[in-house]
Design a protein that fits this description.
Largest sheet: none
Shape: elongated
Structural class: mainly alpha
Number of helices: 5
Helix content: over 70%
Amino acid sequence: MDKIATIARRCRVLFSILGVVMLVFTLSTWAFITPDLAGMFGVTYPVTITPLTKGLGLLVSFIPLSIIFYGLFLLIKLFKNYERGEIFTLMNAIIMRKIGLLFYLWIICQVIFSTLFILVLTFQNSPGEKILQVTIGSDSILPFVVGSIIILISWVLVEAQKVSEDQALIP
Protein backbone atom coordinates (compact mmCIF):
# COMPACT_ATOMS: atom_id res chain seq x y z
CA MET A 1 0.00 0.00 0.00
CA ASP A 2 2.90 2.36 0.72
CA LYS A 3 4.26 1.76 -2.76
CA ILE A 4 0.96 2.84 -4.35
CA ALA A 5 0.90 5.99 -2.20
CA THR A 6 4.49 6.82 -3.12
CA ILE A 7 3.95 6.37 -6.84
CA ALA A 8 0.63 8.24 -6.69
CA ARG A 9 2.36 11.17 -4.94
CA ARG A 10 5.08 11.27 -7.59
CA CYS A 11 2.53 11.13 -10.39
CA ARG A 12 0.49 13.90 -8.75
CA VAL A 13 3.56 16.15 -8.52
CA LEU A 14 4.56 15.30 -12.09
CA PHE A 15 1.11 16.16 -13.46
CA SER A 16 1.08 19.41 -11.49
CA ILE A 17 4.41 20.40 -13.01
CA LEU A 18 3.22 19.30 -16.44
CA GLY A 19 0.23 21.64 -16.19
CA VAL A 20 2.43 24.62 -15.41
CA VAL A 21 4.87 23.74 -18.21
CA MET A 22 2.05 23.43 -20.74
CA LEU A 23 0.63 26.81 -19.75
CA VAL A 24 4.04 28.51 -20.00
CA PHE A 25 4.75 26.81 -23.34
CA THR A 26 1.41 27.90 -24.79
CA LEU A 27 1.76 31.49 -23.61
CA SER A 28 5.35 31.78 -24.84
CA THR A 29 4.53 30.17 -28.18
CA TRP A 30 1.87 32.77 -28.97
CA ALA A 31 3.97 35.62 -27.56
CA PHE A 32 6.90 34.84 -29.82
CA ILE A 33 5.25 33.21 -32.82
CA THR A 34 6.57 34.14 -36.24
CA PRO A 35 5.63 32.85 -39.69
CA ASP A 36 8.67 30.55 -39.52
CA LEU A 37 7.59 29.22 -36.14
CA ALA A 38 4.10 28.57 -37.51
CA GLY A 39 5.79 26.33 -40.07
CA MET A 40 7.14 24.23 -37.22
CA PHE A 41 3.53 23.43 -36.28
CA GLY A 42 2.85 22.03 -39.73
CA VAL A 43 1.41 25.16 -41.27
CA THR A 44 2.52 25.25 -44.90
CA TYR A 45 0.42 28.23 -45.94
CA PRO A 46 1.55 31.84 -45.92
CA VAL A 47 0.49 33.38 -42.61
CA THR A 48 0.18 36.92 -41.28
CA ILE A 49 1.15 37.36 -37.64
CA THR A 50 -0.20 40.47 -35.89
CA PRO A 51 -1.01 41.14 -32.24
CA LEU A 52 -4.64 40.31 -33.06
CA THR A 53 -3.52 36.99 -34.56
CA LYS A 54 -1.53 36.23 -31.43
CA GLY A 55 -4.47 37.05 -29.15
CA LEU A 56 -6.96 35.01 -31.15
CA GLY A 57 -4.47 32.17 -31.45
CA LEU A 58 -4.01 32.15 -27.70
CA LEU A 59 -7.79 32.02 -27.21
CA VAL A 60 -8.06 29.13 -29.68
CA SER A 61 -5.24 27.32 -27.89
CA PHE A 62 -7.21 27.40 -24.67
CA ILE A 63 -9.75 25.00 -26.21
CA PRO A 64 -7.48 21.92 -26.09
CA LEU A 65 -5.60 23.33 -23.11
CA SER A 66 -8.80 23.45 -21.05
CA ILE A 67 -9.44 19.77 -21.75
CA ILE A 68 -5.86 18.92 -20.80
CA PHE A 69 -6.11 20.96 -17.60
CA TYR A 70 -9.38 19.29 -16.65
CA GLY A 71 -7.80 15.88 -17.33
CA LEU A 72 -4.79 16.79 -15.19
CA PHE A 73 -7.13 18.03 -12.45
CA LEU A 74 -8.97 14.69 -12.49
CA LEU A 75 -5.71 12.71 -12.46
CA ILE A 76 -4.38 14.75 -9.54
CA LYS A 77 -7.64 14.18 -7.67
CA LEU A 78 -7.45 10.43 -8.40
CA PHE A 79 -3.85 10.20 -7.24
CA LYS A 80 -4.67 12.12 -4.06
CA ASN A 81 -7.28 9.48 -3.30
CA TYR A 82 -4.69 6.75 -3.92
CA GLU A 83 -2.27 8.51 -1.58
CA ARG A 84 -4.91 8.37 1.17
CA GLY A 85 -5.37 4.65 0.58
CA GLU A 86 -8.74 5.06 -1.13
CA ILE A 87 -8.22 2.68 -4.04
CA PHE A 88 -11.45 0.85 -4.99
CA THR A 89 -14.04 3.54 -4.35
CA LEU A 90 -17.06 4.69 -6.29
CA MET A 91 -15.56 8.19 -6.49
CA ASN A 92 -12.44 6.86 -8.22
CA ALA A 93 -14.58 4.94 -10.72
CA ILE A 94 -16.51 8.13 -11.50
CA ILE A 95 -13.25 10.05 -11.94
CA MET A 96 -11.98 7.37 -14.32
CA ARG A 97 -15.21 7.53 -16.33
CA LYS A 98 -14.81 11.29 -16.67
CA ILE A 99 -11.22 10.80 -17.86
CA GLY A 100 -12.45 8.30 -20.46
CA LEU A 101 -15.11 10.73 -21.66
CA LEU A 102 -12.45 13.42 -21.97
CA PHE A 103 -10.76 11.30 -24.64
CA TYR A 104 -13.96 11.43 -26.71
CA LEU A 105 -14.16 15.17 -26.15
CA TRP A 106 -10.51 15.43 -27.19
CA ILE A 107 -11.35 14.00 -30.63
CA ILE A 108 -14.01 16.65 -31.21
CA CYS A 109 -11.74 19.34 -29.80
CA GLN A 110 -8.92 18.48 -32.18
CA VAL A 111 -11.17 18.97 -35.21
CA ILE A 112 -12.37 22.33 -33.89
CA PHE A 113 -8.89 23.43 -32.82
CA SER A 114 -7.13 22.56 -36.07
CA THR A 115 -9.84 24.32 -38.08
CA LEU A 116 -9.71 27.48 -35.98
CA PHE A 117 -5.89 27.39 -35.78
CA ILE A 118 -5.46 27.61 -39.57
CA LEU A 119 -8.27 30.16 -39.83
CA VAL A 120 -6.69 32.44 -37.21
CA LEU A 121 -3.28 32.29 -38.86
CA THR A 122 -4.62 33.11 -42.32
CA PHE A 123 -7.64 35.38 -41.74
CA GLN A 124 -5.55 38.54 -42.19
CA ASN A 125 -4.03 37.32 -45.44
CA SER A 126 -5.06 39.02 -48.63
CA PRO A 127 -8.21 37.78 -50.41
CA GLY A 128 -7.68 34.39 -51.98
CA GLU A 129 -5.06 33.41 -49.39
CA LYS A 130 -7.41 32.86 -46.46
CA ILE A 131 -7.84 29.22 -45.58
CA LEU A 132 -10.61 27.30 -43.86
CA GLN A 133 -9.57 23.67 -43.47
CA VAL A 134 -11.41 20.95 -41.57
CA THR A 135 -9.20 17.98 -40.79
CA ILE A 136 -10.45 14.62 -39.63
CA GLY A 137 -7.85 11.88 -39.57
CA SER A 138 -7.03 8.44 -38.37
CA ASP A 139 -5.18 9.90 -35.39
CA SER A 140 -8.56 9.98 -33.63
CA ILE A 141 -8.64 6.18 -33.40
CA LEU A 142 -6.17 5.92 -30.50
CA PRO A 143 -8.00 8.43 -28.23
CA PHE A 144 -11.27 6.63 -29.05
CA VAL A 145 -9.81 3.23 -28.09
CA VAL A 146 -8.12 4.54 -24.93
CA GLY A 147 -11.25 6.42 -23.85
CA SER A 148 -13.41 3.34 -24.44
CA ILE A 149 -11.09 1.11 -22.40
CA ILE A 150 -11.01 3.58 -19.50
CA ILE A 151 -14.81 3.88 -19.51
CA LEU A 152 -15.18 0.10 -19.56
CA ILE A 153 -12.77 -0.29 -16.62
CA SER A 154 -14.66 2.38 -14.69
CA TRP A 155 -17.94 0.47 -15.25
CA VAL A 156 -16.29 -2.71 -13.97
CA LEU A 157 -15.13 -0.82 -10.87
CA VAL A 158 -18.65 0.51 -10.26
CA GLU A 159 -20.10 -3.01 -10.52
CA ALA A 160 -17.38 -4.35 -8.22
CA GLN A 161 -18.24 -1.65 -5.71
CA LYS A 162 -21.93 -2.66 -5.84
CA VAL A 163 -21.07 -6.35 -5.31
CA SER A 164 -18.81 -5.42 -2.41
CA GLU A 165 -21.60 -3.35 -0.79
CA ASP A 166 -24.11 -6.19 -1.29
CA GLN A 167 -21.76 -8.72 0.31
CA ALA A 168 -21.18 -6.41 3.25
CA LEU A 169 -24.92 -6.55 4.01
CA ILE A 170 -24.97 -10.36 4.19
CA PRO A 171 -24.41 -11.55 7.78
